[in-house]
Amino acid sequence: MIRILARYSILFILTLLVLAVMSFSLAYLFPGDVLENLTGIVPANDAQRLALERQFRLDQSYFIQFFYYLSNLFAGDWGYSFTSGIALRDEIGIAMPATIELATYSIMIALFVGIPLGYYAGMRCYSTSDYIINTSSITTYSFPVFWLALLLILVFSLQLDKAPLSGRISLLFDVEPVSGFILLDILLSDMQNKSLAFKDALSHLTLPTVAIGAVSTASMVRITRRSVIDARNQPYIAAAVSRGLSGWQIFFRHILRNALLPILPLMAIQITTLITNTMIVETLFSWPGIGNWLIQAIYQRDYPALRVGMLAVSTLVITLTITVDMFNRLIDPSREKYEHAAI
Amino acid sequence: MMSSVIKRVAVCAGTALLVVSCAKQNKQPFYNTGVVYCSESNPVTFNPQLDTSSTTSDATSHQLYDRLLDFDPDSGRIVPSLASSWLVSENGLTYAFQLRRDVAFHTTDFFTPTRNFNANDVIFSIDRWRLESHPFHNVSSGSYPYFESLGLADNIADVTRVNGYRVEITLKRRDSSFLANLATDFAVILSEEYAAQLFEQGNPSQIDRLPVGTGPYRFDSFRKDSYIKYLHHEDYWRALEGDAADESLGDEPLGDEPLEDESLEENSDAILASDRALSTEENVANGEDLNQATNEKAPSASVKQLIFDITPRSSLRLAKLMTGECDATAFPAQTELEVIRNREDLTLAEKPGLNIGFWAFNTQRPPFDNPNVRRALAFAIDKNTLLEAVYFDSASRAKSLLPAASWAYQNDADDTAYNPVLARSLLAEAGIEPGFSMTIWAMPVERAYNPNAIKMAELIQRYLREVGVEANIVTYDWKTFRRHLQEGLHDSVLIGWSADNGDPDNFYRPLLSCGAIPSGTNRAMWCNEDYDRLINEALKTEDLDKRRAIYHQVNRLMYERLPLVPIAHAYRYQAYRNEVKGMTINPFGGVRFGGVEKVL
Predict the structure, then answer these.
(1) What are the alphabetically sorted keywords of the record (chain B) (predicted)?
(2) Nearest residue of chain B to residue A114 (CA atoms)
């Protein structure tokens, strides 16, 4: 157990270190001044430039520079945005939770709708209802997510006027960011129109969540269905049937658990897709998340923001992937034969 | 059995989603407590003195601040604002302003005023851009483009405080457009007390980031690329004044001075002898006229917030307007106008803007130095077709430089008409052979006064071919284009001008005076002594009728010499939802939200 944890932590730390090296080297690879790319501060005069260069150890070897960069990253001093002049840590602190919130609700939909549907289809495989579920999931899965989002906007926002098409909540509401999750923040706040704000935020959430959730759900249905069918074909099921167990007993005792095991590692792979989809859909719904923020940074050539943004997003993906994988390893003893940690 | 459970779950989930997605529709009164305006970009600063872009003045000028004077949006006349009345000396060099009392500055998280608006604030606000030695002059960028482009600072000899509520400005030369300049979006009044406080804290640049003014809304928060939040200013003077007038009509204000209007005349008699002859309309306006005169009202009590939702994409602004996420939007694109007109829940307001699109000839290059050649080319084109094809009828035909919104507009000004026969004969007289070739420079960017210069150039090219002139269309990227124009490399150019204030001088001087050739706004490179003499003369009198007569003379001269062909004055558009009441287009600058409210 401890060995597993140790292995995963080493993998985690090493990956992050590589990422940090990459983000540090971006300061040199981006066009423009290294000091400005690294700090986001444009020195007003030569004296200030010298002072900053000394402060950021730019007059010393790359190794020392990188070491200082790392210590700054840990201290939360991530530099400043070129365009807004705000500390990047604050900007990411607002944008990141918005993305995570959207992704969380979408994965919830995928889990609570996709897995039961997949089980249902798997249990009834090659029946009419299975064909319907399977066809619709394949269709949804093959939709490009941005197209689906645009379609939702066109139908539900512009034609039917049922849902707003941009932002997290009507700007009239003043929600103090505490957790960064808008629904949670509304519940935590002591505002007057709490229920109205909550409804407003939900209506803003609906379309983007559905757009991202639909694609994730579709793939979840397909994975689960396949896994259930595989489990049903196992000899121990035939044995259980021959022992005279009822359909429900077989399902709960044998199929449910055994089919879940192969799903988990596949979910780890899904996380990358999920985050990517979230970032795409964000830009369409003007959701103030990290994807939207990064696109703005690209447009405005905000190099410090790109550098830290890339680090933040990849850290998020790596963290989630490794966590799911480790969890998977811990609960599935059959994987013990794999000595090394892997992503 | 299992399937029925799953079905039930599915039905429940489906219903839940539907309920959520429909929830938004029943409009709660809460949504009427704020106005959301979809603006096109981030303001550069929160002090319009520092920037001339319309985004900055839209976001700040009429929301956060007041000026000494305002333009009446309908007539273009100058009406009182923070100055309740004013007086110009007979030699036109001394302007005395009587200031309004009981005008409160914003109380915000970062500043609590201890006193009301007075003469010190006026002096501070003007001295900041006027005096290079002023401690706040170099704060932020230290450049005040509007005032610098007019050389206003050089013309002001002194700004003095007569007493707490009277300020006197002395000019070096007569300038009858001076009052108009004080009424522009850029001449806002800042708080001297706030500035002093920041100076003491060693943080003077905060004055332009966390603004304090006297306007109908006060600053709350700003997030770049996202939103600006303003809150209702509870003690806004126009609101208080309305109440006071209702309660006690004709009551004398308490104070250590006599009633303002009489006192002003008496005192100014003492200061500048024999001023009584001046016409009352132009120089003295009293507070009672004010409420009828200005359209800028207090924010209605129901509107507590004003939000600028920063949305750079025009199509997205339109979409948000349709779904009701915005109540009003900036700059709808020409192609979207039809969509807005066809929707019942939206209103499209239009008004001729203070701009002009024109076709200027380089009068320093032969054969365009010959007025007859210029006239011939002007007669060769059909302006009405250009209006239809390029502006989609969203512009009015231009006869002189001035649009109809200006008080000096001449309705019966001479105008060239489409007459290819006359054009051909004029060209023959001037000795231009058929097959003569020239260039038309078409600006590469889209502007209200010319949304598609290249298309216009192509149309003109066709017209010119009919009279035997071959035109080549030239265009560069915008920066190079302007540099080459300034160097005078063009034969003719399609370009235009947007004015900053309602004064006619803001059109005539920068566009065609000799002095405007080096500064690069005189695209015709035209220098005419009579023209310069006339427009200078017009500035030496305050009498509007006299000035108008002079400008009519100027129009006549322009028609005869035709250094440029005026083509169109584009309309300004504003799209808003029907729930929004009290929106008016302000042709003399930024959008105004004072007095705007929402009703179901």
Answers:
(1) Signal
(2) B10
pLDDT score of B1:
42
Both structure tokens of A341:
């940690």
Nearest-CA neighbor of A288 among B227, B203, B289, B275?
B227
The backbone torsions φ and ψ at residue B352, rounded to the nearest 5 degrees and listed phi first, read -60, 130
Residue A258 near chain B (CB below 8 Å): no
Encoded amino acid at A9, one letter: S
| For the ranges A55-59, B152-156, B203-207, B377-381, the one whose mean pLDDT is highest | B377-381
Q: Do the Cβ atoms of A120 and B3 come within 8 Å?
A: yes
Q: Residue B24: what residue type?
A: K
Nearest CB partner across the interface for A165, out of B6, B34, B319: B319
Could you read off the pLDDT of B85-102 as tens digits, one per residue?
Answer: 999 888 888 999 999 988
Judged against a pLDDT cut of 80, whether residue B156 lies above it is answered with yes
pLDDT digits (tens, 9 = 90+) for B492-548: 999 988 887 778 888 898 888 887 787 677 889 999 999 999 988 888 887 888 889
Report the alpha-carbon distance of residue B520 to residue B509 in Å, rounded.
12
Name all contacts of A13-22 with Cβ < 8 Å and 24+ positions apart. A15/A318, A15/A322, A15/A343, A16/A315, A16/A318, A19/A311, A19/A314, A19/A315, A19/A318, A20/A66, A20/A69, A20/A70, A20/A73, A20/A311, A21/A66, A22/A310
Class of domain B37-212: alpha beta
A127 touches chain B (CB under 8 A): no
Residue B384 carries which side chain, given as an amino acid letter? N
Is A196's CB within 8 Å of B229's CB? no
| Residue from A35, A29, A19 nearest A73 by CA | A19
For residue A340, the model assigns a pLDDT of 59
Q: Compare CB distances from A116 to B9, B34, B311 and report the shortest one's residue.
A: B9
Q: Where are the domains of chain B?
A: 37-212, 355-572
User: Does the pLDDT value for residue A261 go beyond 90?
Assistant: no
Query: What's the rounded Cα separation, in Å, for the pair A65 and A57?
Result: 5
Say if the Cβ atoms of B21 and A286 lie within 8 Å: no
**A243, containing H or E segment:** none
CB contact A164 to B (< 8 Å): yes
Question: Out of B21, B309, B323, whose CB is closest to A165?
Answer: B323
* Alpha-carbon gap: B597 to the closest alpha carbon of chain A (Å): 14
Return the CATH number of the domain spanning residue range B355-572.
Answer: 3.10.105.10
What was the pLDDT predicted at B8?
52
Cβ separation B325–A193 shorter than 8 A: no
In the predicted model, is pLDDT for residue B155 greater than 60? yes
> If pLDDT is split at 50, 70 and 90, which confidence band does A231 have?
confident
CA B273 to chain centre: 36
Sole residue written with tokens 């010499």: B561
* Nearest Cβ partner for B320 among A84, A112, A165: A165
pLDDT of residue B243: 55
pLDDT bracket for residue A343 (50, 70, 90): low
Structure tokens at B393: 């009828």
Please tell me the distance from the alpha carbon of residue A280 to that of residue A293, in angstroms, as a whole number.
Answer: 11
* pLDDT (mean) for B364-388: 91
pLDDT tens digit sequence for A184-224: 888 888 878 888 888 888 999 999 999 999 999 999 999 99
Residues of chain B contacting A164 with CB distance shorter than 8 Å: 24, 323-325
Report the complex ipTM.
0.80
Q: Which residues of A touch B25 (CB under 8 A)?
A: 161-162
Confidence class for position A136, pLDDT limits 50, 70, 90? very high
Residues in chain B closer than 8 A to A136 (CB atoms): none
pLDDT reported for residue A112? 92
Q: Shortest CB distance from A203 goes to which of B9, B23, B305?
A: B23
Q: Does A190 touch chain B (CB under 8 A)?
A: no
